Every structure is written in C-alpha cells, then in structure tokens.
Amino acid sequence: MSAPALAAHRTAYLDSAPLKPGDRVRVVSPSGPGNVESLERAVGYYRDWGVEVVVGDHVLDPHPRATYLAGADDVRRADLVDAWCDPDADAIVCLRGGYGAMRLLDGIDWPRLREASLRRDGRPKLLTGSSDATALHEAFRVHLDVPTLFCPMPGNDVFRDAEGIRDDVHRWLFEPWRGRSIVGPRTEVLVPGRAGGRFTGGNLSLLAMGLGSPEAAVVPGGILFLEDVNEDAYRLDSFLLQLRRAGRLTAAAGIVLGSWHNCAEPDAVRALMADELGDLGVPVLWEQGFGHAPDALSIPLNVDGVLEADAGGSADAGVRLVVGEPA
To answer: Which CATH superfamily, name and number, covers 3-174?
Structure first.
C-alpha cells in the first residue's frame, strides 16, 4: 500500500469506531518492562471490553543487561512488527512506557509495515500508547501516515487507579471520533487565537530527542500537542529551545499544552511556556489535560481538528478543541 493511498485513511475513525467486540488487539511492550500482574490486568481490561487479545511473545522477557528495557531491542522490535503485520490485527496496544521505543525505529522495515497497514475491513490498524510511545506515533505518522491514539496504557498504575481514564480510553476505541471535544476541566487560554490542521506531538522530551532523525526531516504544521513528566524547568526550557531551533514550534498553527506531572512548580512551568511560546503568534492552550496526569485525557494524532481560544477563555467557555472539523 503506497503512502498516498494510506493518506486517504487518516479519516477512517471519524465516522466509525476503531474497534468493535470480536476484533483482535495485539499487546506489545516496546519500552520498559512490565510484570505478570500488570500484563494480566491489562489483558483483562481489553477482554472485558469484548475483544480478542494476543500478547507479544517477548513482552516479559528480561534484558540481558539493561533492566530499564523490556527485553533486547531485536525481540521488542520483533513483537511490534509481528503485531502490526498480523493480517487479523485491528489495534496494537503498548503495555506501558518508560524508555526504549526510539531504539527500535532504525531496524524496522517500513515498506513492509506500510504494505501491512490495512486491516480486514480496509481501514488502517490503530496504534495506541503514550509517553515513550511518542517515538512510535511520530514514526507511524511519517512512514505510514495512519491515525494513532495517544492514550494512557493499560499496564500502568494510573489505568488501574482511575476509572475515568479507562472509560475515556474505551470511548475513543469504541466510538467514532468526529466532533469530539478534548478540552480538559482545567484548560485555560495562554494565548488567544484560532487555528486548524493536523494534530501531532506528544511527550516534549521525546520530540526533542528525535530531532535529527529521519522522522524529523520534514517539519509538520498543524496543531502541536506537548506534555512531559519529571522534568525541571531548565530541562523543559532546553527542549523547547531545541524544537524552536529545528522549526517545530514556528511551523505550528496552534499549540496545546497538556499535563506537567511532577515537573517544576506549575506557576513556573506556566511562566516558562508563556515566555517561550507567547511570541509565536499562534493560539496556545494551558493544561488541556493529556499526558501523565492521574486523570489524563486521550488525544488522536495524525487527524485534523480545530482550536479556538478566546482571550480569558477556560474549560467552561471560550475554548473549542474539536476533532475532525476542517481548518
């Protein structure tokens, strides 16, 4: 399947739900290690939702040296590739984040994955995951041009602890996306304005880490989503500087800031974002809610949408962030 042909499938989930009972979900662990308990819990959630679950062969394999990786690169890569190329697979679910997904990208046969991108019903398969999976979202956007879902992962404690997160992920998987509002309860307008275009982005540090890679060779426009976790203010500053110098910030038509869980003090992060993004001339939302927060929202990527932010607007009024509307 050629890239132009796949481009027509970016809208595949706007009017029809990604999954239905009986579909097949493949669970992989491209980053950090899980354990038997978290894997069984994750599988249980999806089976309770009525789908068939197939677990990657090496999900619980230990790495011979690096305890922060869920097995060696070649076996994590093999699980990911096998899952995507399974002709009966409908979605690929990352079990958890951590670190390691970017290590897999250079060894992937992207033409092979592109040929295997469509499921039995002719729509593209769906990759789901967040945090370190940002590297995969970026690569799947560039090499496969398919929609993906940046969402909390079922092997993480937050998925276990927050029924609201599970309900939100379930809705994104089992309901159509068009017209869905993704304004969080604490959203505020940092810079007013209106914008439209493709949703891209994810974890700020992962986006900065990917600069200079093949995936970063062409800078996307549209609406850029950014979030992070466990980073000091100077580190966030440096990541933003990297994105600015690479043209990623200046190419954006609008910017949506998610959660900054366990980063610097919220007021300090807000002030940093205002300083670094306020001169771009594009609308900026503060604390939209996706990311690592205990009540994190899911967001679709590589789909179009609109951002409307009135001066002084908040979650209650004056903010629209809607999936599937034209720019």
So the answer is: Murein tetrapeptidase LD-carboxypeptidase, N-terminal domain (3.40.50.10740)
